[in-house]
Design brief:
Elements: E1 2-8, E2 13-20, E3 25-29, H1 36-44, E4 48-53, H2 65-72, E5 76-78, E6 89-90, E7 96-99, E8 102-108, E9 117-123, E10 126-133, H3 153-170, E11 180-183, E12 201-202, H4 203-209, H5 218-225, H6 235-245, H7 250-255, E13 259-262, E14 271-274, H8 278-283, E15 289-290, H9 298-305, E16 312-316, H10 319-330, E17 338-344, H11 356-361, E18 367-370, H12 374-379, E19 387-388, H13 391-397, E20 407-410, H14 415-428, E21 434-436
Parallel strand pairs: 3-4, 4-5, 5-6, 10-11, 13-17, 14-15, 14-16, 16-17, 18-19, 18-20, 20-21
Antiparallel strand pairs: 1-2, 2-3, 7-8, 8-9, 9-10, 11-12
Domain Rhodanese: 362-442
InterPro entries: Metallo-B-lactamas (IPR001279), Mito_Persulfide_Diox (IPR051682), POD-like_MBL-fold (IPR044528), Rhodanese-like_dom (IPR001763), Rhodanese-like_dom_sf (IPR036873), RibonucZ/Hydroxyglut_hydro (IPR036866)
Keywords: Hydrolase, Metal-binding
């Protein structure tokens, strides 16, 4: 038996292949959008993919389950509570899949979502591993507020949090301490708030160290789980719906994006997502551009600033980077929204650098905008009179920023402030100077 873990470091996503060496058969769990790594692993081991298990319809990435189902003629297994549009076989409490000496046992574990399942792997009759999806993470558990739509959303959040309390205690904590834990996400995901950097653990270790498995009342658990959760990007509900439907095949979909050298034609109602370094962007960029730099959080901020199904242009420093970013855009299901992709272009606009000495001498001469998350501001507000608007909300709240004084924008390290300052500059249309404090914020914090 082999367990292969695959990682998408940009979305902090883990997927898995479970290989029966004696039968040369393989089952996948929560595959990412690009199926090629799984096909390559199957070829490498001369194995047949005989099934794909979805622990729930994911909010933060798009799965390739439907494409693999079609290409490999492999059934998709999911909880019947998912009610997907694609053909599937129900995999719920009491259901078992067997390959060789491996038995995969389904557990219904609502909490992160009503339809979440976990999978226990038995080998030669002994529980060996738990594939916990977004139910149990290393150091944390899944948030309960990503499926709220209509009705009393607070009641739904509280109901799911209560279900999570019981799923963890009535199901997962009953597993042996030596069972290895394989979650669907690690540190950096927005599906939880306190995840470890580790990529696996044991149930024994989690029982000792994971806050969500500590002894506490249900009321105490619900209060903790529903407090201080990170923001929810705009693309999350869209990806849930897309995963319930099943996404288009990856390679043909990204191949349809037109790539050109130069600059896109400027249109006021279509944003240009410029992924170049902030220094290059500030030196020369186009009107109506947002500087979402190529980096580990590109997908998150793209899917937070640009709405699902909203067209945009994508711009990068070179063709290779552009192609990589198109593929990353597809990982959240946004590739069909790219109106055109361009590389090596600059622009006629320039953003002036902030005079740090002048700013330091009298910050009151500036309107300071803090685009960090609410929890970050609450923990430490850097400038007493700053206007706090999280980057994920900025596009809808720019009118709250007055035009009377020059605007200086900051986050915690410069990445978010580059995007925010460029967006504010585009929306203010020259009515007021806009500056990015950038990495210099570290001198004040």
């Amino acid at each position: 038996m082999k367990i292969k873990q695959f990682e998408d470091k940009f979305l902090s996503h883990y997927s898995y292949a479970i290989l029966s060496e004696c039968e040369s058969k393989m089952i996948l769990i929560d595959p990412a959008r690009d199926p090629k790594p799984y096909y390559d692993y199957a070829i490498e081991n001369n194995a047949e993919i005989i099934g794909i298990i979805e622990t729930h319809p994911h909010a933060d990435f798009v799965s390739s389950h439907l494409e693999i189902h079609k290409q490999a003629s492999s059934p998709i297994y999911a909880s019947k509570l998912t009610r997907p549009d694609y053909p599937f076989l129900s995999f719920d409490e009491g259901d078992v899949l067997e390959i060789g000496k491996i038995r995969l046992r389904a557990l219904n574990t609502p909490g992160h979502s009503p339809d979440s399942i976990c999978i226990v792997l038995e080998h030669e009759g002994i529980d060996k591993a738990l594939f916990s999806g977004d139910t149990l993470f290393i150091g944390d558990c899944g948030r309960p507020d990503l499926r709220e739509s209509g009705g009393d959303v607070n009641a739904e959040r509280m109901h799911l949090a209560s279900q999570m309390y019981h799923s963890l205690r009535d199901q997962l904590m009953k597993l042996s301490d030596d069972v290895v834990l394989y979650p669907a996400h690690g540190a950096g995901t927005l599906c939880g708030k306190a995840l470890s950097e580790a990529n696996s653990s044991t149930m024994g270790e989690e029982k000792k160290t994971n806050w969500s498995l500590k002894e506490m009342t249900e009321q105490e658990f619900v209060k903790e789980l529903t407090s201080n959760q990170p923001f929810i990007p705009a693309y999350f509900p869209y990806d849930v719906a897309l995963n319930k439907k099943g996404a288009a095949d990856f390679q043909p979909s990204v191949a349809q994006v037109a790539i050109s050298e130069g600059n896109p034609e400027e249109q006021e109602n279509i944003w240009i997502i410029d992924s170049r370094k902030d220094t290059e962007f500030k030196a020369a960029h186009q009107q109506h551009s947002v500087n979402i730099m190529e980096g580990t959080k590109f997908e998150t901020w793209l899917g937070s600033i640009i709405s699902p199904e909203e067209p945009f242009y994508l711009k990068a420093k070179d063709e290779a980077t552009l192609k990589a970013l198109i593929a990353r855009t597809a990982s959240i299901g946004y590739e069909g929204q790219i109106k055109g992709a361009y590389f090596a272009g600059g622009g006629e606009l320039k953003m002036e650098a902030l005079d740090l000495q002048d700013f330091r001498n009298d910050t009151g001469k500036y309107t300071i905008v803090d685009v960090r998350n609410e929890s970050e501001v609450k923990e430490h507000k850097i400038f007493k009179d700053s206007i706090p608007i999280p980057l994920g909300e900025l596009r809808d709240r720019i009118d709250e920023i007055p035009n009377g004084k020059p605007i200086a924008v900051h986050c915690a390290g410069g990445y978010r402030s580059a995007a925010a300052s460029s967006m504010i500059e585009a929306e203010k249309k020259g009515k007021v100077p806009v500056f990015d404090i950038g990495e210099a914020i570290k001198q004040f914090s």
